[in-house]
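The passage that follows is intended for readers who have already worked through the single-chain material. We present the inputs for a multi-component assembly, then the predicted structure in tokenized form, and finally a short commentary. You are encouraged to pause after the input and sketch how you expect the pieces to fit together before reading on.
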Amino acid sequence: MTLGIEIENLTVRYPGVTAIDDLTLKLEGGKIYGLLGRNGSGKTTLLSLIAAFRRVTEGAILVDGEAPFENERLTQQICLVRESGDIVVDGDSVKGILRRSRRFRPHWDDEFAHRLLDLFQLPLNRGVAKLSRGQKSALGITVGLASRAPLTMLDEAYLGMDAPSRYAFYDVLLEDYIENPRTIILSTHLIEEVARLFEEVVIIDRGRLVAHDDTESLRMRGAAVVGPAAAVDDFTTGMTVLGEQRLGGTKSVTVYGEIDPDARAVAADWGLELSPVALQDLFVHLTKGDRA
Amino acid sequence: MSALTYRRSRASFLDLSAGFSQAVGWFIVTVAVIFLVIGVIIDLATGGTSESIWENSAYATRYFPLSMGIMITAAYLPVAVASGVTRRSFGWAGAGVVIALSGLMALFEAGGYLIEYGLYRAVGETPEFTTPHLFDQGYQFWLIVPEVWIVVAANVAAGWLIGSAYYKWGWFGPTLALPLLLLPLLAVEAIMAVGWAGAALDAMNVEHLPTAAAVPAALAVLTLTLAGIHSFVRTIDLRPQKA
Amino acid sequence: MFDDRSPIYHQIAEAIKNDILSGALGADEQVMSTNQYAAYYRINPATAAKGFQQLVDEGVLYKRRGIGMFVSPDARDMLLSQRRERFFADVVEPMIAEARVIGIPLDDVVARIQTLKGRESA
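Having made your guess, compare it with the prediction:
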């Protein structure tokens, strides 16, 4: 079972800042989504609203066709792990967290949870307060995955985890998703490692939707045009330019948008090189902007 | 209440109980040791007064549960909501904790009075009470249990209300509004003629309500308080996570 | 395994085609499932499925309901003829263009090819 999400004209204002700004977005169930945005772009706020951690005040969020706030049928099927997780009370041990999740999560898989603890080398009897940053993240991931919630959201889940643990997480996430298909949203600002796990990518910046597309299409939509400065300038006139760099007489301009075969022919004719842009670079360009 | 709400409330209640059980257990042991064992023995050994020592434990069995009440929302609302429990179900669980914790305290208190009564009687004394109560003998557990239950419940509820207000609004507003937040507790104490409010009324020579009227009236105030907290809790957004 | 230069599903299709051309995958041999493939290469299963679907559309693979995907009997011949057709456009013409840019006379290129050919037949 999977849950789809519809967001319409969602706005969230905090004192002095608009965290989510008129966001409209539709996510089908059963896919792995990457939610990309810089720190403070509104990722956590958005996920907190979907998970009914906060009440929607302007606009609407529907999960499986219903508003999730105070909707028990939905909330028990939605699991959001914010960084290290909100499910820890001072004094809790790793074991206590598992006991709690077993109690609250209808699809909880205890065996899988223990396998994850082994994988991340988390001691069962250790107090959560004594865990390192990376171990807390691993505990959050363990709870997030073993809950098998039809809508699972992990917000910057890997903070403090070393590379081997992160890759172990990606492997186990994919393996478990294949065995138990569900809607998964991973929010991140470190894109390179995880981009290939995403079926679709949502990029938000300052609370606004910047892009939502399947990962491959999005990746192919960016292009770097490299060649003699004058020719590059001519070629890119009228295109959405995300960034440019110059080295002597050579210029490289990153553009965003479809480049049709005719335009490609022209580029070849003019001696310009067109190359795809890594998702990470595209993300940086799309969310670059002055901020305090 | 739907079957689902019941199931989720029950799970949340058990989670809260599991979290509180250790502290409550230690509290009970500590209070029993201090007031019963040490207090009574010293009193008997020194051939002291016939005044009840156990009576003084009442302050502990009110204020400790009040402090637990403060933790209900502050520590466990985020846990419940992040575990997919609605505030509605959490509210029922919190009300359950208020009733269960105060019930436990009532049994504990009644047991203490009974033991103390037995010990005093063994040396030919009868414990006497210096503060107002519904009961006047240590063996009257049928009066002790309702009195302590209602009064402690009002204390836990007050703690829950205060803790919820601090969680929602931060420290400034609720600190200013503290007297307001304590109003339901004072009302219950006044109606039952116990605690600070009871003592104040005594000092002013105000007539006590008869037990048959005081108990239902106090229960009504308590029910209203819990209902109020329940609807208040349902409006609380989780705070952003600490960095 | 994959790079950023083209869509990953395209690279998956190319990799399987190369396996068929090299003989690593024979006619009517079963290929990995999309899920196995996705888990192995750590990519989204939908992306892997897209690559496989492309191969089915091109007739390189065929599906057997409930069992999996297999290499078409004529896949290798088909791919060979495609590659042969593309050979001049993809390999020879860019080579000549490059030779021109860096100033190698075409006669030298031809001579070199003759030498290699002679060595091979010897």
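Commentary: Residues 223 and 277 of chain A are 5 Å apart (CA to CA). Chain A has two domains: 5-206, 219-286. How closely did your sketch match?
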